[in-house]
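go over both lines:
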Amino acid sequence: MTSFFWFAPVRCFFWPVAMSLLLVSRASGAAPPPVAGANETTPSRAQYFSWINHTNEGPTAAQTEANLGFFSYLKEEYGMVLDIYAFDAGAIDGANFYGKVDSPRFRRQFPEGFGPLVSHAAAMGTRLGIWGGPDGFGDTPAETAARIEQTVRLCRDHNFALFKMDAVCGQLRPSAYEAFDRMMTQCRQFTPDLILLNHRLNLGPGIRHSTTFLLGGAETYIDVHMANEVTAPHHRAGALARELPPKLTRLTEDHGVCLSSCLDYWDDDLILQAFNRSLILAPEIYGNPWLLRDDELPRLAAIFNLHRRYAPLLTSGMELPEGSYGPKAVSRGDGRTRLITLRNLTWEPVTYSIELGEQIGLNADGAPEWRVTRLHPGIEDLGVHASGGRVAVEVAPFRSCLVRVGAELDPQLPLAGSSYEVVRDVPGRPLELQVQGEPGSHADLTLLGDRSRFTAASLDGQPADVLLRGQSIRVDFPGELQPKYIHPIADFKSVPVPADAESLYEATCFAADNNALELRSLARSGPTAIPAVQRARDAFFQQNIFRARELSDRFLFDGDTATAFSVSLRWGDPRNKGGGFRLDLGQVRPVTRLVLETPDEFSLQPLKSEEGVRAEVSMDLRTWKPVTFLAGTHMELDLAAAGPWRYLRFSPTPLRLTEVRGWEQDREVTDRTAWRASNLFAPYTRTHWLPAGVYSAQSAWAATALLPRVISSGAYLSVAVNGVHGVEGATVAFRIGGKLVGCPDRSPSFASNSWEVGVRASDRNTTYYLPLRPEWAGRTIEAVVLALDPAQKDLQPAIWLCAPSSPTVWKVLRLTRQ
C-alpha cells in the first residue's frame, strides 16, 4: 500500500536522491551492485500484491488461501505462472507500527503462520513477498537481534522473493542504518534474488540494497489515486498516459495495474505496464482481479504468458520518435525481434507507420524481410515485408497497441487471415483460439509454420482439417455491418435552460449509485461460473471489515438490522453540498407506507428526533408530491395520499440507515431486489453558491442524434464535457422515447462510499456514459448538458457512439497437438 498524499514531503526529498544514485551508477557504466537482488538485464517477474483486497487491517490466511486458489485455477486452466504473491500492509507491520510474528494479532490472522501458504504458493511455482517498514529494531541489542532474525527467517525458512518497504510504516532512524544493512545482507545470503521495493524511504547507506524506487510516487487505484485529466471513452485514459521511467530504467516500480475499480480497458493498461515500461515487476497487478468477467480471464493469462515468453528480450528498450510513433512509444528486443508498444490518446483513430529497420532497433543486415504481427488488441498477422520498408498500424482511440516484428515466425502464433485471441495454450491440451470478425464479413483462415504438430482441427465444433493440409478455410461471420466502434454522432448547441432541468439532474442521480467501487465492478462483470473465482469474491465481500464499513445500499434491503448503508467519514464527509437520500423502487408501485430505520440518535445526524422532514415522491421524476415525516430511529412515512410512486428523495441524509421497508396497504413488500438507494448526491436546489429555491442549472447545451438500426453488444454513448465546470458543476442526461434517462457512470467516477479512500474530485473534463439498450435502435435521442456553476459556462460538450471494440463475432478454433 502506498499513501502518496500523507508522505509527499518525504517522497519529494528522498525519491530524487535515490533515483540520482541509481542513474549516476548507470551513466558511469558500472553494473548495479549485486546486493540489489537484480540489475537492468534481469528479466521481469510477474507479481500480484494484495493491497485493497484488504486495507491496513491486513490479510488473513483464509482470504489468502482463496486468492491463491484463483491463481492456481489460472495456472491449471491457462498455464499462467505468477512469480510473486505479496502480502501488503498489515500482515506483520502496519501503518505506523512494527509487528511481531508471535503477537496475538499475527496469530489471529495467520493461526498456522506462513508455512501452509508458502506450500500452497510453491505448488504453483509462486513465492511470497511482504509489505513492511525499514525499522522496528527497537532500542536495545536484543530488540535489534529479534527484528533481524524475524525478517531473515522469511528468506531462510520461507524463500520470500520480495520486501516492499514503505514510509507509511515509518522512516528508518539513522541510528538503525547499520542494523538495516546487516539484516538485508543476511537475507540475501539465503535469497540472493530478493527484491527490495523502496517506497519513499531514506535508507542511508542501505540504499545499496534497494532494487527500485517508486515511479512518480503514484498509486494506480483508478479514480481514487489515478483519474482521467481529459475527456475519454473510458476511465483508464489517465493510466494509459503514464510517463516512462527516466532513461527506461527498469529498476523502478510503477505500482502495477489496479484491477478493482473501473475495469474496462484494463488490458490496454496492462499491455503498457508489461511491455512498454517492462519493469523488474511485470506484469504486476493488485486489488481484486477476480472481479473481471469470466471471459476476460483467458486474456489476463494470455498477457502474462506472452510476457513470460518474451521476458529475456524485454530487458533492452529504446524510445521511438514521438513525431512518427506517438507519445511514449518504446521498442524492446534484439536485432532480430522487436516488440513495439504504441498508444493513442485522442478521440480519433491514428495510423502509425513502422519502419522495418534500425529506427526500431532491427539489425539492418539481419534479415531480408520481416514478419509483422499485431499482438494487441487481438492477434493479427500483418504479413511479411521487405527490410527497410514500412507497415501501417492503426491504433484505436484511447487504446494501446503491441506489435511484434521478427525475422522468424513465432510458432505459438500460428494463424493468418483474421484477428484472434489465444484462449488456451497449455501442453497436453488442444490449442484454443478465438477467431473474430466483423458482422457481415468473412475471412480466409490459414495455418502458418509447422502444421505437422497438429493432428486435428475444428471450428465451432465442426471439422476443419483442411487447415492441416495447407489449405485455407472460409469463415463467414453472421450479422450485418455495424457503425465504426467510436465516432461522433451529433453536435451540441447552446440552448436556454430547459424547464425540466431539475428532472434531468434527478434522472442521473437516480441512475447512478454511491456504493463502493468494487461493488460497481461486480455489477459490471456479473456472476461467475468458476468456483475459484466465486471463492475469491466471497472472501473479499464477506470479510468482516468490508461489511462493517457499510458501503452497499443492498444492506438496506436484506432484512438484517445489524447491517447498514452509511455515509463514509474515513476521509472527510464526501456528501456533495449536503447530500440527500434517494430511493428508487425500480418500478411504479402503490407503496402506502415506508419505514426507515437507524440505530441511534448519533446515526440520525444531522437530523434530530421529533423534527419534521420534508420528503417528495414521484412516478416520473417530473412531478413531485410532498410528504412530511418525523425524524427518529424509526421513521414512518404515510404515503397513502401520494398514490403510486417510484422515486423518493429528502435531504439531508442521516449518517447511517439500517433498513428500508415498505407496505402496500397491509401487505409488506418482501421482494426488494429491484430497490436501490443513494446518499451522497446533492439536492438540486441546494448548492454552496446558490440560495435554496433557485434552480442550479445556469446554462445548457443539447444535441439530437439518430441511433443506428443495430446496436452492438456493449455499445454506449460518451458525452465529453470539455472545459472547466467546477467540482460537481455539470451533469448530463437524455430524453429517449418520451422518458428521462440518466447516466449510471462517468469519469472520474460518481461519489462513492469507498473501500479505501474517496474518489478523485474533478473540476474539468468530465465524461458521462450511457449504455445503449437494444430497444433504442433506430430512435432519435436528445442529450442535454447542464452547467450548474454560474462562473463556469464556457464548455464544449461532444457526444460519441462507442463500443468496447470494433463490433465482432467470435468463433472457436481448436487445434489438437501431436
Observations:
- The CA atoms of residues 474 and 788 lie 56 Å apart.
